Protein 1
Amino acid sequence: MQFAETSIQPAINLSYGNFYLNSWFNLPIGDDDLVVTPGGEELDLVAGYSASLTDVISYDVGVTYYTFPDLASGFFDVLREDTDGLGANTVEPYIGLAFDVPLAPSVYLYHDFFLDTTTVQGNASYSFPLSEKTSFDVGGYVGYVFDDAGGTDYLYGTASADISYTLSDNGSVYTGVRYGGSDIAGGAVIDDAILGTRQASGFWWGVGFNADF
Amino acid sequence: MNRAALFALSALGASTSVIGAASAQSVEVSTTVAFESRYFSRRAICRDQHTTGD
């Protein structure tokens, strides 16, 4: 499901040598989140290690802890379908390869131990300089989820196009449009939060601020 | 945990990160604050499929 409401998504990324710690938070702020978003608050905590294999190829390994602060489950309650059903958090290790060539392609393999799913995702991006401080950035990813528990496999993906403006050596802003969807039966993008109707794909927009310290 | 508490934790985390970067030169910190008109998450798709069934 791609919930319909607008969201603020703060992220903090720390790196020390080849090691990194990332956090990403989705906080719904739309009025309609009261209707459709149990679990709309998503906090992802990531620990990983990335290094070069060659001048062109680098690898990335890590693990993500997915939590949903607005659900009844506590921070350490992982998904357990055979107990009280309150646990929602899951753990997902991953490994990826990135290629330092045009379009910056990368491919990642994920496996969630609690949802019992394996995901393969490919990513690509490109930046067209428009001026000294402005660029047109395009990107996207396509993934396929194998439900190892016997459920339905599905395809998903997004594409984005942003105008970015460099404010300083350490800061930039961007805004742009996105398009995403999946081939999940019945559609996975909510087009009406009140009625709960869905469609296969949809557009949305975003604006953001990046800062390095 | 309510939203105010989560915001406070985020701010605390950012502050701690900045202090850490200042005291250890090799620690690099970056932040992003995005406003998106739709919550589109690979995890949200997967969890929804899992919880609502096929």
Protein 2
Amino acid sequence: MPAPTVTPTITPTTEPATTPWPERYTDPARICPQQRREGASPDVEP
Amino acid sequence: MAGLWFDAGFAHPSATQPVAFVPLAGREVGSFDPSRVDPSPGRRLRVFATLVHCVDPATGAVALRESHQAFITPGRPLTYLELYETVANDDAHSAIREALSALPLRLGQPKPLLTELPESPQWSARDPDLPPALQDLGDEINEDIREALDTLDNPESYYPGIDSGIAPVTDEHVKLVIWAMQRELNRELRPQEGHYGGSPPLPAAPLEELQWPVQRALAERRRLRFSQWGIFKEQWEKGAWSLWDVPLDPEYVSRRAQRLYQPVK
């Protein structure tokens, strides 16, 4: 009977040299519609 | 008896039957949500469609979005383009035209307008946002932010600003715009890939780490986007904008819709 094995936990890297930005940071396009309208910051001059 | 409560003209397709895409110009007036991925063309038509809704499918009665009192009852459903042309040209609808010429630019609690970086900014649960009819404007600015972030990984990538057609943007204004954009990115952090409850949330993208020319280009693009919906400093100061200042631009499709739309096969 084979010995039980433990699956190693792999933590995603956050090394900028190897990880593209959508995996390091929140993608602005994924925020909700209301927040995308808020992101236009209409209290700040165009 | 199931199936008899709705009018045959508004029958829903079955769950297995694909829904054919109909552009707004040929689509009967219903309830248009510009935040859904919908590649219907027409810059002004998309705004107009968000400002109205059908209140009685049997008679085609239509009201302004914040109201249930119909301003037109044509006797049959109209398409968005038919309704638009009627409202734009018919003397009977001058009051509606006037209402659509003075729309609020900001929703939420009134707050002082910002012309410079606040010395000690106060975090708030909500800052002013654009009205839903200007969802495309918000989405275009969002797409510009997204494209700017590509330069974090590829510093040599081309991210042009705006050379002409907008009022010059000062360095101080660039800093204010980047601060304001960062304020909103920081507010709503989403877990990676939309998976809630398992993975930790990703941090907000650090806009201040963008190269200065990219930050400047982003602020210039934002000014251009507002102008593409007929919004300049004057409208911003008044807090009001007009549907009739939005260019017709009948071929316009939002970049978000272009990027995400997948036709039904």
